[in-house]
Design brief:
The protein is α/β, with parallel strands linked by helices and 310 residues long. The chain is built from twelve helices and twelve strands. Helix 3 links the parallel strand 3 and strand 4. The chain is elongated, with a radius of gyration of 21 Å.
Length: 310
């Protein structure tokens, strides 16, 4: 079979060469690329003869997949799959497998980091001191003792709860089903409405589905405390982002931290969150740690090996 990795995935060329030799010993061809190119035509050219392809979060529409007549298996170096035309894959017997779990620690740590940044205004004061300013009369707020609402208690949500409990937070949780591990940590499951009304901080950890698309919009934001913070390290469209920006401008909520948006960064310079007050914006880096990428590489190519041995 021909295996193609269409992007570098944070893997060294030496590691790729080791993989290439290993696949050759098994009678397979392995091709890899050391640049990330999101152009549909380039992707199609790279994947057109592949039986197996490895890709992360580059958008993979039917227009590209239609040109990959040999494709049987996609090993996705990412947790979410909403960037891939899964309906096309299903109709054409292309197996798709994600790399669940590789970034659990990385994302949960960054979510908590955004909370602390907003509470203590770290990013803001970095800019202030570089411009010759000082503290003024500012008083920050501590994470300890805050009520944090965790929306989604899968692996990342649960890891975030563990960190929050270590910081001394009270945790409210919302999920389709209750998990014993979460209850054992002292979190309390409540309705989404109650979570929004009672939380000092709301952090989102749900996949993007038909049910979660725009689950946080103007109506939900109005339920939150005017002093509350919103953190999104899940998927951009879990929120109605223009409505979040308006809520920040109008003082409906006090601040927000976003790592995800409607599209992958870079963002248009007129993107509404870039002009909203007290909003820390990151370029989708929550999952991107050295440790997470090493774990991801192992998961992705273990999946490929499992498929080859079937």
């Amino acid at each position: 079979m021909k295996i193609v990795c269409v992007e570098p995935l944070g893997i060294s060329q030496e590691h790729f060469e080791e993989l290439k030799q290993n696949y050759a010993l098994q009678g397979h061809e392995f091709e890899y690329y050391m640049d990330r190119n999101e152009d549909a035509g380039t992707l199609a050219e790279r994947m057109k003869d592949a039986d197996v392809a490895v890709i992360s979060n580059i958008k993979l529409p039917a227009a590209v997949l239609q040109q990959c007549n040999n494709l049987k298996y996609l090993s996705v170096a990412f947790t979410g799959l909403d960037h891939i035309d899964l309906a096309y894959c299903k109709d054409h017997d292309i197996t798709v497998q994600n790399a669940a779990g590789y970034s659990t620690t990385a994302v949960s740590e960054l979510a908590v980091g955004l909370m602390i940044d907003l509470l203590r205004q770290i990013t803001y004061f970095d800019g202030t001191i570089r411009q010759g300013g000082g503290r003024g009369m500012f008083l920050g707020r501590e994470l300890k003792g805050k009520i944090v609402g965790v929306v989604g208690t899968g692996a990342i949500g649960t890891a975030t709860i563990a960190l929050l409990r270590a910081f001394g937070c009270k945790v409210l949780a919302y999920n389709r089903s209750e998990h014993e591990e979460v209850l054992a940590m002292g979190a309390r499951y409540v309705s989404l409405e109650q979570l929004l009304k009672e939380s000092d901080i709301v952090t989102l950890h749900v996949p993007l589905t038909a049910d979660t698309n725009h689950m946080i919009g103007a109506a939900q934001l109005k339920m939150m405390k005017p002093t509350a913070l919103l953190i999104n390290t899940a998927r951009g469209n879990v929120c109605n982002i223009p409505e979040v920006a308006e809520a920040l401008k109008n003082g409906v909520i006090a601040g927000a931290g976003f790592d995800v948006y409607e599209t992958e960064p870079p963002l248009a310079l007129d993107h509404p969150l870039l002009h909203a007050p007290n909003c820390v914006c990151l370029p989708h880096v929550a999952y991107a740690s050295r440790e997470a990428f090493d774990i991801r590489a192992d998961i992705v190519f273990d999946h490929v090996q499992d498929f080859l041995q079937k």
